[in-house]
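Workshop exercise sheet. Pairs work together: one partner reads the sequence aloud, the other fills in the structure field after running the prediction. Swap roles for the next sheet.
Pair: D.N. / O.F.
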Amino acid sequence: MAERTLRGARLGGQSFEDERGIEFAARQQVGYRCPQQHEFEITMSVEAEVPAVWECPRCGAEGLSTAGIQREEKAEKPVRTHWDMLLERRSEKELEDILKERLELLRGGEIGPAHLHRPSASKKKARANA
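Structure field:
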């Protein structure tokens, strides 16, 4: 049985195949320079879309392409506030009418925090005697 056992290769998996007959993909070297003036090159496929920035392997800063590739500026949407979203649904006249209606209900005691609407001791006695 000892002859049939397969002995393991070392850790990391060494391949026993050679590179004969293998055609590698076409590659290109793309240069970058970071703000600390570190210059470095990255190997990429010719078919790959080359990014305008790449992280510097030395300092971690963003390196810009030395080939003059520019970043695409993303069109940013303007910030929408709660007021903007509210005005998309209602006009200012409608909002004023709703505010007046809600204030009347609040002042009349029909809506609002419960502690404002608890009957006082004198009101409880008046109701009990009635």
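Discussion prompt: The mean pLDDT is 83. What would you look at next?
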